[in-house]
Amino acid sequence: MERNRSDDKIDRARSPSGAAVMRTDVTEALTRAFFNDWASAGYSGLSLERVARSAGVGKAALYRRWPDKAAMASDLLSRVGLTITDVEEQGSLEGDLKAALFAIRRVLRHRQVRRIVMDLHAEMERTPALGQTIRPFQRARRERINALINRAIERGEVAPSIDRETAADLVAAPLYWRLAVLGRRSDRTHVEQLARMIASALRA
Amino acid sequence: MERNRSDDKIDRARSPSGAAVMRTDVTEALTRAFFNDWASAGYSGLSLERVARSAGVGKAALYRRWPDKAAMASDLLSRVGLTITDVEEQGSLEGDLKAALFAIRRVLRHRQVRRIVMDLHAEMERTPALGQTIRPFQRARRERINALINRAIERGEVAPSIDRETAADLVAAPLYWRLAVLGRRSDRTHVEQLARMIASALRA
Amino acid sequence: MERNRSDDKIDRARSPSGAAVMRTDVTEALTRAFFNDWASAGYSGLSLERVARSAGVGKAALYRRWPDKAAMASDLLSRVGLTITDVEEQGSLEGDLKAALFAIRRVLRHRQVRRIVMDLHAEMERTPALGQTIRPFQRARRERINALINRAIERGEVAPSIDRETAADLVAAPLYWRLAVLGRRSDRTHVEQLARMIASALRA
Amino acid sequence: MERNRSDDKIDRARSPSGAAVMRTDVTEALTRAFFNDWASAGYSGLSLERVARSAGVGKAALYRRWPDKAAMASDLLSRVGLTITDVEEQGSLEGDLKAALFAIRRVLRHRQVRRIVMDLHAEMERTPALGQTIRPFQRARRERINALINRAIERGEVAPSIDRETAADLVAAPLYWRLAVLGRRSDRTHVEQLARMIASALRA
DNA sequence: TTCTAATCGAGACGGTACGTCCCGTCTTGCC
DNA sequence: GGCAAGACGGGACGTACCGTCTCGATTAGAA
Q: Closest partner residue to D169 among C41, C118, C177, by Cβ?
């Protein structure tokens, strides 16, 4: 959730000669108001006018920073991270799977995050800007699962011929489905059981 | 699911004596326009004014039938069915799974349907009326997968102690994830491979 | 206020063979409702839908009798008459003028009539049908004033060279102006005074 | 009347600091469109939506200036003036009357003005806001006629006992009646003749 | 410290959609 | 066939946001 990135649009824009930089307190007020409005009204109910108003800021200040809703969402989300924290090797396929699933669960456990992720998926195809923001995260998750599978191959638990794409889908999808789409809970037992079953599938 | 309901608002509504019935051609034009607009603008971008206009119909004709967007979506969806067609027994777990996956793929292959399903999932929590419309479909799918697993248990392919919920997630989620969330294709080989892996998982 | 005219649209329409004539009670209810609505909402605020509703009658029953608002107004007005009752000779110009002014006052004293007459004048130019209905009444009034002036000429009270148009304007306008436009009252003394002044003008 | 008012709603409204002022070109376009629509559709047929559209302006721009039709009419009329231009002394009752009648004719000669004035008279009683706007103009006209009569009394042309109200009606009404109600023209000869007859009446 | 240009809050602008109401026409089944 | 009931396409109502734009006033870096 850190925001120590290069901040490539904001906090620069200083003119060759003169002065004037965007004020960070304004940016922060807008960010806070944006996520509040998102959580309470949903992505599509989100009104930038309301965001600006409830941040106590003119609309121009908002539009000076981001061209539209999708861009604002993209930018803010990439700052916020949606980071699926990295996971240490557990020494076995099932152990690694369990750890990966717990990491996914950690993120999707928050109702706000769940809503945002669902909105994002629904909006992605229609709004290219969002797609470009989301894909790197999807890629990162995929890398992590790939690494996990590679280790399993090295250990001889999984056949080298396995289809990585399908395998990756098998790992991430069922938990997402249960938590986000069905809106059900997932306790420790469930995660463990799921890990066991996925391990079987991958070993097949 | 079947649509042999009593159709209780529309196509009747005739006063005790007298006449004035809603015209079915108008209802159909609105239905078509509604789904077109949904697919192209998303649930929240969906404008009933635009729907009426592009159906060549006055707004009043629309509002006479449905009080608002959510009600219209609910009603139309329950009419349309989102039918995952039933599937014949194939004689083996893997065969049944393959058949079930092909049935899912048949539905999600259409871009319009994919978009609508995603929006639905995103909107469900925010709009209770939609949730109530969708849940029966989810239950029906779950029943079908349950039946499939029961048959496998009877054949001795699967342990009777299996967790039905988790198993069902494992069947439906990966294909949904690939087609809808990732926006990738699924060919015959992929479906067969997926069926094989899921069968392993269930047998574990 | 009689309605013994030839009634050329209504009360016939009986089919060659069978049955069915327009019901006079419906026509009367519509007529009453029409004038009520006119007085309370003005000509242009007049809603035929409201007229039908408050007459307890279907809209079709109204539109079967009259094609639109202007035609309905025309027809009803010509039935009602707006009759400035004829006036007996008084033996002197001033006496005749007094009698004519009292006749005008008798009509314009009613608030409803005043409103309708004003609306009529305002709408006339925009709605030719109304103009054609009103003009005969204006002509009739003019005839009466002309007769009055002719008698005065025969008596030698007025020069034969007088401009009849201008004279007629001078008789009718001031009282109309005071009662209808300014919304003030006119008592007996006022009428007498006015008659005296107009007589002077005509004698000039 | 003069329009040197403080213009208290429009053309100011600037916030303590900052900016955002109503644009005068927009106000003017709306004003023009309003009177056009009034002349062609009548007061009650006047649609603010159409006014905004034909001014090439968003509806909000209109509603930001005026809360409703009556307020808009009142405000615009008081700006426009309906000015019956003042008239110099002519040295005789008949001369003054002639000048006053020419001034009235100058205004009522325009078809648009005639229509609006008639609607105004018809609408006044029903719409209090309009009445309050119109009455000052009526009062002003009356003052002017009163001054004219006072001069005639000073000259000894008219008896001091004359009823001012009735006299004033006698001056303004016949020309209004001919031009506006009857829709006839008034040439120089007619005005002169009328002035002569009214002078007789006043001297009586 | 002064200059100066981009920032700020405010909000007007042309639009589009909302959901309601009424227009005048058309259609249905009862009488 | 007249009747009531009311659905139909159309369009205006007044409100809320959209994203763009223009105002002075503020503010902070470069001179």
A: C177
- Exposure b/e, D37-75, CB count within 10 A at least 16 = b: bbbebbbbbbebebbbebbebeeebbeebbeebbebbbb
User: Where residue D199 sits, what CATH number does that domain have?
Assistant: 1.10.357.10
In a domain, D3, yes or no: no
Nucleotide nearest to C57 (CA to C1'): F4
Mean pLDDT check: name the lowest of A172-176, B11-15, C99-103, D85-89: B11-15
Residue D153: inside a domain? yes
Residue C56 sits in the same domain as residue C134: no
Residues in chain D: 204
Cβ-Cβ contacts under 8 Å for D133 (sequence gap 6 or more): D73, D74, D77, D78
Kindly state the tokens that stand for A167.
């395998």
For position A67, what pLDDT does the model report?
85
D181 touches C: beta carbon within 8 Å:
yes
**Separation in Å, CA of D58 to nearest CA in chain C:** 25
On the question of pLDDT at C90 being above 60, the answer is yes
Instruction: Tell me the average pLDDT across D92-101.
Output: 95
**Cα dihedral D159, D164, D165, D171 sign:** positive
> Confidence class of residue D19 from pLDDT cuts 50, 70 and 90?
low
Task: Kindly tell me whether chain A and chain C come into contact, counting contact as 3+ Cβ pairs under 8 Å.
Answer: no
Closest CA to C101 of C186, C6, C36: C186
Same domain, B61 and B83: no
Q: List, for residues D112-134, the tens digit of each pLDDT value.
A: 888 888 988 988 877 888 888 88
Of D111, D130, D99, nearest to D195 by C-alpha is: D99
Cα D148–chain centre separation: 20
Contacts of C161 (CB under 8 A, 6+ apart): none
Helix%, strand%, coil% for chain D, nearest 5: 65, 0, 35
**Angle, nearest 10°, between helix axes D164-176 and D128-155?**
110
In a domain, A51, yes or no: yes
**How many CA atoms within 13 Å lie on the side-chain side of D118?**
31
The residue segments making up the domain with residue C40 are 19-65
Which CATH number belongs to the domain containing residue A61 in this structure?
1.10.10.60
The residue whose two tokens read 């998750």 is A141
Q: Could you tell me if residue B1 is inside a domain?
A: no
Task: Report whether C162 contacts C149 (CB < 8 A).
Answer: yes
What's the number of domains chain C is made of? 2
Same domain flag for C108 and C192: yes
Q: What is the pTM of this model?
A: 0.78
Tokens (6 digits) for A46: 């989100």
Name the domain boundary from B65, B92, B119.
Answer: B65
Which of B42, B172, B202 shows the shortest C-beta gap to A126?
A: B42
C55-76 pLDDT, tens digit per residue, is 989 888 999 998 888 888 888 8
- Please count the other Cβ atoms lying within 10 Å of the Cβ belonging to residue B36: 16
Give the whole-angstrom CA distance, residue A37 versus residue B180: 27
Same domain, B176 and B91: yes
Q: Return averaged pLDDT per consecutive 10 residues of chain B, 204 residues in all.
A: 36 46 94 93 91 96 94 88 66 95 92 87 82 87 92 96 94 96 94 97 92
- Residue B47 φ/ψ region, left for φ over 0, alpha for ψ in the -120 to 50 degree band, beta for the rest: beta
**In this structure, which amino acid lies at residue D126?**
R
Q: Is residue C92 within 8 Å of C163, Cβ to Cβ?
A: no
All residues at 6 or more sequence positions from A28 whose CB lies less than 8 Å from its CB, including other chains: none
Query: How long is the CA A46 to C1' E16 vector, in angstroms?
Result: 17
Rounded to a whole number of angstroms, the CA Rg of chain B reads: 20
Mean pLDDT of chain A: 83
Q: How far apart are CA B22 and CA B28, in angstroms?
A: 11
Q: Which of 31-50 (D) contact C at CB < 8 A?
A: 40-45
What is the distance between the alpha carbons of residues B133 and C29, in angstroms, rounded to a whole number? 49
